[in-house]
Amino acid sequence: MRKTIQFSRFFVIAAVISCLLAAFSISGYIFNKGFALGVDFQAGLLQEVQFAPTAFSLRWNGSANATFSYVPDRNRIDIVITGSGVENRTYEFFVNEHNTTGSLGNAIMRELGEIEIEFAASEETALSRIVISTQNNQHLSADVPFVIQYIERNPSIIEISEVRNAMANFSQGVSVQVMGAPEDRQFMIRVEDKEEGRVVSAEIVQELEKAFGNGSVAVLRSDYVDSRFSKDLTDQAGILVALTLLIILIYCTIRFKLQYAVGAVVAIMYDGLVMIAFMVWTRMEFTTLSIAAILTILGYSTNNTIIFFDRVRENLRVNPDNSFKDIINISLTGILGRTIITTASTMLAVLALFIFTTGSMKDFALALLVGMLSGVYTTLFIVSGFVNFWENQKIKQQKKKMTIG
Fold first, then answer.
1. Confidence band of 205 (pLDDT split at 50, 70, 90)
2. Is 1 within a domain?
3. Domain identity same for 77 and 121
4. Which of 109, 311, 360, 403 could make a disulfide contact with 331, Cβ separation 3.0–4.6 Å?
5. DSSP string, 326-373
């Protein structure tokens, strides 16, 4: 016969520890003035950049106006000549017809004699590696070169700390995230804009080029998120978590009893507090992935809790003469092996995410690891302790009524 582990002996100690952790979480939120909000929850400029050296640059020496545009869906470069007294002409250069930057540059100079091209890298650089910054002014001129960049083979890795240091003197609040693999050298830079419209995209590039060199930064995407959108996203995140708790409360009430449902909600709220404490004290950036991590853990913890409730209901039928405390101990002992195996196997997959990913995905995996450990703890001590306390109070009230009667 399997030996029953007396989990109930630790219910009071667990309750004290849980209250202290909850207070620690709330104090951390107050002391650190909330979350370290990520790029999704602040009004400001969102810019995705890639560090890439200059392949070649173009200067326009003609009297007419010339504009440069790249049509990605057709893999084509258009140079349009316009102006007073000049016949409007469009010169099309299909990238797939040229293998190297030298081939493309020479083709452009053959067609337009007024264009001067200066190669900063080898003319044998493959065109498949070129990057055209959205920050470039489409109008070609003799004074400001139009820069076309390229992705190096085996580039030196740029650490996120280097990018943050480069932006340290920026007057607005800045957050930086890694995009893709380290060798891609892509970063998402978020600049807070307390007074809307004050942050200019070109200023970010200027700060980065001061540290990494002129013509070394390509802007892949630039978006502005206003304060209203950020507030709506924050409100929706709160509503989403509240609805999740309500649905779990209704489901557990219908399937089990009210005390079980309240216990489940208390437990997952505690899991949420543990994750909040971890995020606010470690200053992990709070993004939409953080919300996904919290909701994932709420679901994971609820699954463990429902399995425990099922076992309690089953043992109440099998052992009707046992005390409720004994039923809880038997039920927890019965699910302990399954809980450990399930959690350990899931954590191995999450651990692989934590080891082999970077940026926000690494933070997501770390939050899941903390939440899973918390989920096991809440099932073994918080839910069971709460349900046992409720049942004891219920029995005391029944005895009191019988004594009075």
1. confident
2. no
3. yes
4. 311
5. HHHHHHHHHHHHHHHHHHHHHHHHHHHHHHH--HHHHHHHHHHHHHHH
